[in-house]
Amino acid sequence: MSTPQVKPIPDGMHAVTPHLVCAGAADAIAFYVKAFQAVELARLPGPDGRLMHAMIAIGGSPIMLADSFPEYGSQDPKALNGTPVTLHLYVEDADKTFAQALAAGATEKMALQDMFWGDRYGIVTDPFGHAWSIATHKQDLTPEQIARAAKEAFASGETGCSAQ
Question: pLDDT per residue over 38-50, tens digit each?
């Protein structure tokens, strides 16, 4: 009798999956539910109550989470004075999602605006230190159109890329 073959990438997972470390992962899950309509998929608390592992889905994309465990070298963005990583979130209505994230407790990092590459785009920082770009694709442009629009935007200083 043969043993069933285990899938190297489990059903529902993608090849690249963000894994966020948060000081207060349970609170982060509640924020993501409120800000981005996340769906909680799993939660595994450790002996001291901190979450060793959790998983949510936003728009069908899985995201893993855990509490920070500095004693094991796992630190959150606030402990590191920020993050160089931005999670990009495409949504049906960037204005609605951006406002919803702010109302849930995020702070504006870059104002939402129409960008030269064809997206309505802005960036927020969540209460746990993670940056999220929020976008709705509004216009299909060729690489040549984008290059021309970028050149014009940078020449006029109107790139929209100046983070606050």
Answer: 999 999 999 999 9
